[in-house]
Amino acid sequence: IEISQQKKNYAEWIETGLEGIKIVQDLIAQPYDNYDEIYQEKKEKHELNIYFKSYTSPENSKINIMRCEWYVPCTPEQFIKFMHDFDEPASLSKNSEEYKLVELFGESDEAKYAIYYIAYKKVLTAAPRDFVYLKNYKKLDENTWIDCSRSLEHQDYPEIQEKVRGKMITCGHY
Question: How far apart are CA 8 and CA 31, in angstroms?
Fold first, then answer.
């Protein structure tokens, strides 16, 4: 790939990552009154709340939003960096068959952009599928980090007939 095209791709992918972070921040800012609380568990050092809402988009697609809150016994920076550490493929689901870091760029102490490819085996009635996605994080202030994952297209990983190409619209941690 030409250097000028690669710089253009990086700029577009960084913009995609920043848009995703904005979406996650906007979702976090929404009030809870339009979510259904579907699970709550409280223990001495652990609290987990899961909220869910579903709606149909103007394009007639069903959108599910799951909002989870829990206590993590580490700093926000440690948690975000743990969530981006995929050096141990064994820690992934036993149903994954391939996991690759495709590209890493824009990395600093306060931000990181990486493109990953992951493929899953057929499980019961779910067809084998794969994803190509951007995973990025950003430090907002001393105690606040945010990360986001969004699907994208990559010239080295076109869709293949044997797998359903999954799409992550926007996923994140805050």
Answer: 37
Helix (H, G, I), strand (E, B) or coil at 5: helix
CA-to-CA separations, 49 to 36, 37, 40, 42, 174, in angstroms, rounded: 11, 7, 5, 9, 15
Residue 174 has pLDDT above 80, yes or no: no
Structure tokens given for 72: 């993590």
Question: Are 161 and 129 contacting, i.e. CB atoms less than 8 angstroms apart?
Answer: no
Model pTM above 0.85: no
Q: How far is CA 12 from CA 3, 98, 153, 156, in A?
A: 14, 26, 11, 16
78-130 per-position pLDDT tens digit: 777 777 766 655 455 678 888 888 988 887 877 888 899 999 888 888 889 99
Helix (H, G, I), strand (E, B) or coil at 89: helix
| DSSP string computed for 17-73 | HHHHHHHHHHHHHS-GGGSEEEEEEEETTEEEEEEEEEEE-TTS-EEEEEEEEE--S
- For 155, the token pair is 């010239």
State the Cα–Cα distance between residues 29 and 165, nearest whole angstrom. Answer: 31
